[in-house]
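Example 3.2
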Amino acid sequence: MSYVKPAELVTRMVDAGAYKLQMSTRDTLIRSFMGAALLTIAAAFAVTVSVNTGQPLLGALLFPVGFVMLYLLGYDLLTGVFTLTPLALLDKRPGATVGGMFRNWGLVFLGNFGGAFMVAVLMAVYFTYGFSTEPSAVGLAIGEIGHGRTVGYADHGAAGMLTLFIRGVLCNWLVSTGVVMAMISDNVLGKIVAMWMPIMLFFYMGFEHSIVNMFLFPSGLLLGADFTIMDYLIWNEIPTVVGNLVGGLLFVGLPLYLTHGRPATRRKRAARAAVSTAQVSAAQDSSGQERMPEQTAPADRDVEPVHAG
């Protein structure tokens, strides 16, 4: 399996972030809609496996199939763009602006919610025979997840809110690691194995993923679970989004960029400057007049990313 070293990996991350900021509104919405749809179908699958087998670990082992499919197809999740797009600003890529970044985040959020909600409606119909019967065992389990992870946090007050936020942070630490690991190999099998590991961990640990929750909680409400839309927004979705932002950027994007990205670029520029100075000095010593060294390739180039995910 091919392996991409960390310095090249960071270049790919920055390229991907810059590319996403330049995408059209149509492409951003389509890719985020489909990304959330595939991920949330996999979430429904994982819950189904867990309920039917009584083995939550088996559900966690199988859940990453949705994540793998969506990133191999070049679709987007909010958790991923939280990590990648700020790097384009830090690297001062042409066209990368704060306004463009927030625009991208807003469009991806809308697309992800649309895709997740569509799956929530479809699965609610599936679990109830078109709302003509009581929810199946899997539908009841999804409703209980929604209740426990909204009202359950609210029962603990500030401590519950802190726990919710930390679970969001931990979630996107792992999920964004999966996003980045998708770029660490040029081989499809290598990508799949690299992505599978962190996604399996986050799901089994019960961390809070804003896009998965866009499916679980609307599903719970459609299936008659005992919580409200405001419970969902205040005691799950909003703190989870903030936690996901912090976790992905603080523990994945920035550490890789700071240690393998910008400092490496500075060292390369310094080395090229030293070589150029030496060439000028040698030319002056040999001919008695200044002669310009051969022009070298620019340090930073804007290229289409190897991985759009």
